[in-house]
């Protein structure tokens, strides 16, 4: 399960502003390791393009469709949390510094 979490966490940590940059990372993490077939990956990518919202939610499908444990709903939750966690940690880690920076007179113009 740690390798599963790590694959999605790394994909989330290495990509800024989501976009399609995450696709090669997810492909190498789940298809090349044999957790999801290439056909399933491409099919769900097509569905994800038709749906509104961020492409990172594509990770939930990959987590649910994987042959690796956890799969199903548990896999979807683990994958979704893992891919969004790096950004969440970055935002919460930087907010105190951002508030201090905004309160300085030199940045008030």
Automatic annotation (TrEMBL):
It is found in: Cell membrane. Its main location: membrane. GO terms for molecular function: chromate transmembrane transporter activity. Signal peptide: none annotated. The chain crosses the membrane at residues 73-95. One of its GO terms (cellular component) is plasma membrane. InterPro entries: Chromate_transpt. It comes from the Bacteria. Keywords: Cell membrane, Membrane, Transmembrane, Transmembrane helix. The keyword Nuclease does not apply. It is a multi-pass membrane protein. Belongs to the chromate ion transporter (CHR) (TC 2.A.51) family. PANTHER family: CHROMATE ION TRANSPORTER (EUROFUNG). This is Chromate transporter.
């Amino acid at each position: 399960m740690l390798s599963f979490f790590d694959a999605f966490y790394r994909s989330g940590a290495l990509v800024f502003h989501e976009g399609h940059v995450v696709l090669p990372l997810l492909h190498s993490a789940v298809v090349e390791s044999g957790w999801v077939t290439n056909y399933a990956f491409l099919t769900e990518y097509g569905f994800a393009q038709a749906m509104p919202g961020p492409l990172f939610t594509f990770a939930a499908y990959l987590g649910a469709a994987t042959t690796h444990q956890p799969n199903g709903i548990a896999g979807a939750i683990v994958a979704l949390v893992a891919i969004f966690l790096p950004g969440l940690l970055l935002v919460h880690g930087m907010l105190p510094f951002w508030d201090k920076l905004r309160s300085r007179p030199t940045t008030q113009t």
